[in-house]
Amino acid sequence: MTAELARECARYAAMGWMRGTSGNLSVVLQRDPLRLAVTVSGVDKGEITENDSVVIDENGEAVGSDKAPSAEAGLHARIARVAGACAVVHVHALAPVVAAEHWPDGVVLKDLEMLKGFGRHDHEEVVVPVVRNSQDMVELGDAFEKGFDPRTPALLVARHGVYVWGDDLIQARHRLECLEWLLRFKVETRDIFTGRHA
Ligand SMILES: [Zn+2]
Predict the structure, then answer these.
(1) Is 92 annotated as a binding residue?
(2) Cβ atoms within 10 A of the Cβ of 113, count?
(3) Are the C-beta atoms of 109 and 185 separated by less than 8 Å?
(4) Residue 18 Cα, ligand 1 centroid: separation in angstroms?
(5) Domain locations in the chain?
C-alpha cells in the first residue's frame, strides 16, 4: 500500500501538481478505529519512498511513530470519515486554485463529457464546493462538512489546492485528472460564457 502511495506521488510530481514538498496522499488501512497511511511532511514527492508514510488516527495524529504526518493529515481523516473515502489525494495544481478565485461560492460544471470521469453524468449540474484556506484542520473540516454533497468527490481550498477522493488511489487519480481538465476548461472559457466575446 505504501509503495502505491510513493508511485502515485511520483506521477503527480511529474505533472507539476506537487511542487516543492507540497501535497499529500492517504489510504484507509482500517475503519474501526479509523487508521490511514499518509505521506510524511517535508519530503519531495518526486523522490518519496515506500518508507515515507505514517499511520494516523481519525484526528490526523500519528499512531505508533515519531515521524511527522503532513499538517493536512487531519483533513484527510475527516474526509475519509465523512465521505467514506478509502483514498484521499491532495495536490497544489493551479487550475483548481484559479477556479476557486473566480467562483468562491462553488464552481458550477455542466454539459461536459469529462464529468463522467469525475463520477457524475455529463448533463448534471455539478457544483464543486470551495472553502476558505486555513491552517486549522478542524476549521477546514467543519467547512468541508457543511458543504458536503456525497455525489461530489472533491473540495477546493481557495488560494491553496484541491482534495479529491475515491474507493482507491487509482479512482481518486482518475477523478482528479478529469476535474483538473474540467476546471481548466471552465477558467479558460469564462469570457465566452459571461458574454464578453459574444
Ligand atoms: Zn496543501
Answers:
(1) yes
(2) 9
(3) no
(4) 9
(5) 2-193
Q: What topology is assigned to 2-193 in CATH? A: L-fuculose-1-phosphate Aldolase (3.40.225)
Residue 93 alpha carbon to ligand 1 centre in Å: 10
**Residue 66, pLDDT score:** 82
Distance CA 184, CA 162 (A): 13
- Is 90 annotated to bind a ligand? Reply is yes
Q: For the purposes of burial, counting CB atoms within 10 Å of the CB of 165, is it exposed (0-12), middle (13-18) or buried (19 or more)?
A: buried
Per residue in 89-143, pLDDT tens? 999 999 999 999 999 999 999 999 999 999 998 889 999 999 999 999 999 999 9
Distance, CA 59 to ligand 1 centroid (Å)? 17
How much distance in Å is there from the Cα of 197 to the middle of ligand 1?
35
Give distance in angstroms: CA of 131 to centre of ligand 1: 13
What are the pLDDT digits (tens) for 27-64?
Answer: 999 999 999 999 988 888 888 888 889 999 999 999 98
* Overall pTM > 0.85: yes
If DSSP codes are grouped into helix, strand and coil, which group holds residue 105? coil
CA of 162 to the centre of ligand 1 (A): 8
How many angstroms is it from 188 CA to the middle of ligand 1?
A: 24
112 grid coordinates: 461536459
